[in-house]
Amino acid sequence: MAEDLKILHTTDKAAQYQSLQPQIEALITGEPDLTANLANMAAALKEQFKWFWVGFYLVKGNELVLGPFQGPVACTRIGLGRGVCGSAWQQQKTLIVPDVEAFPGHIACSSLSRSEIVVPLFKDGVVCGVLDVDSEELDQFDEIDAQYLEELVKLIQF
Q1: Structural domains of the chain, count
Q2: CB contact at 8 A, 69 and 78
Q3: For a Cys-Cys bond, which of 75, 86, 88, 120 suits 127, CB 3.0-4.6 Å?
Q4: Rg of the chain (C-alpha set)
């Protein structure tokens, strides 16, 4: 099991993900605890990319409930279809929001968040949670982020 991250200092986003992915795999391989794995993945992503907020919401009944995260305090519960997280859950797809102020129904857990990407986590074809990443910069996320974050969340075993 890896205990330290090697942070790649480059502006090449794909290279950063390619360096980080095997390290995250090493962190969670053989660890059966979901909370530990979500916490380590959130921490690794925040350390590498220095994003404002990185965390998970897990489906519990008819809500997303806050799970492990890195960053300032966050909204605890989000309903289906509400905000970016609830919309990604409802639509069962990754949502990239270049400007959260322009997203209808955006939930402002922090006024410092300017852009966001939300990636659903699936178990047996059903959304069981989402990875939520916020940035203080506008237009921070793109298809490269979507591709690699979708690959990373597939590593999580429910």
Answers
A1: 1
A2: no
A3: 120
A4: 15
